[in-house]
Amino acid sequence: MTLQQLEYALQLQQSSSYSRAAKILGISQPALSIQIKKLEEELELTLFDRSQKKIQPTYEGKTFLERAQLLLTQMQQLKNLAVELADEYSGEVNIGIIPTLAPYLLPLFIKNLNEKFSKLTINVEEAITEEVIQGIKSGKFDGGIISTPIKSKTNLTIIPLFYEGFMLFVSQDHPLYQREKINVSDIPLDDIWLLKEGNCFRDQVDNICEMVQRKEEGHNLFYFESNSIESLCRIVEYKGGVTFLPELTTMSISSEREEMIKELAGPERVREISLVHLPGHVKRRTLEQLSHTIIASLPKSLLEKKDFQAIPTNLEL
């Protein structure tokens, strides 16, 4: 059994096709088939079900390939370790970040980060939380910036960065517009614009508003399929209604729209934002420095919160 054979098997699992996998790997289809067959014979295990047009791993194959992915991820970390030992803050670091954070958080720290680590290439990609965790597990990402806590089968090191409050963005034509603070129970559910399901911010808003319970009581909710906070703001401006905003987004709201931002009455509700990575990751010191730089670049209002209610994400990955 070789690492190359494991790479081939994992690519076949991802592609579900010998021809597509071979093309991506840059080898012939017969060569790929031979290597997969050799691997199965050595293991005395059938990894793939070939009875269907779409190639899928068997139950045993899926279990084996999950372990194989972890092994290849660790091998990649060993390669990265050589770079880390030679020069701790050089090379590349790949970060996944959720869409409700990326446009608002990155501008705060990326300049400081580039100045502090001039030899370090930082690759950042937007992805929902599930994709970030999967990317960390597969080795695509060295770390991720997400909302926590989450329940994950993958053991993760979690470095809390800051806590941002939940705010409201209210149409000027809405009856609640004249209020400075608004009780959640006073917001008609039919007036709320929400992000698509699968977004952790959406889940947290559900928790604040007890959406499931109120929906069961007969409310007909309308969901806009988007990961964009800015899109929701535009809809509120032109179509009316209410949406929820993370505190960071309100710092980029134009002065003409500032009066549309309202606070929630009662205890301050916040979401915890953290940097996460695999325990013992070879770039953990770089990631720790990244966390320090982010914290140092944040507005004081985000760092001085004391009495608040952290809203769970409900994510189980």
Tell me the series of helices and strands, N- to C-terminal: HHHEEHEHEHEEEEHHHEHEEHHE
Please bin the fraction of helical residues.
Answer: 40-55%
| β-strand number | 12
SS content category: alpha/beta
Distance between the termini: 30 Å
How much of the sequence lies in strands comes to 15-25%
CATH structural fold name of the largest domain = D-Maltodextrin-Binding Protein, domain 2
Top CATH class of the largest domain: Alpha Beta
Mean pLDDT: 85
Are there runs of 5+ residues with pLDDT below 50, and where? none
Shape designation: elongated
Give the CATH superfamily of the largest domain.
Periplasmic binding protein-like II
CATH-level-2 architecture of the largest domain: 3-Layer(aba) Sandwich
| Total of DSSP H or I helical runs spanning 4+ residues | 12
Quick structural summary:
Helix content is 43%, strand content 20%.
Explain how this protein is built.
This protein has 317 residues and is α/β, with parallel strands linked by helices. It has three domains: 3-74, Winged helix-like DNA-binding domain superfamily/Winged helix DNA-binding domain (Arc Repressor Mutant, subunit A); 83-161 and 272-310, Periplasmic binding protein-like II (D-Maltodextrin-Binding Protein, domain 2, 3-Layer(aba) Sandwich); 164-269, Periplasmic binding protein-like II (D-Maltodextrin-Binding Protein, domain 2), CATH 3.40.190.10. It contains twelve helices and twelve strands. 29% of the residues are buried. It starts with a helix and ends in a 7-residue tail after the last strand. The model has no long low-confidence stretch (mean pLDDT 85). It is elongated and about 70 Å long. Strands 3, 4, 5, 6, 7, 8, 9, 10, 11 and 12 form a ten-stranded mixed β-sheet that branches. Strands 1-2 form a two-stranded antiparallel ribbon. Helix 1 crosses helix 2 (18-25) and helix 1 (3-15) packs across helix 4.
